[in-house]
Amino acid sequence: DENTQEVKSIGIIGFKRRAELLQKLLKKFNLAFPIDFRIIG
To answer: Residue 22 has what DSSP assignment?
Structure first.
């Protein structure tokens, strides 16, 4: 179903953005860690 695929891709993009923001925040506190999106999905 096309609509379901679209929602999934939007959700994944949103998740990546949140993860990137989280990683930037952690770097500010010197707690940066690598996030490998290939492992996540």
So the answer is: H
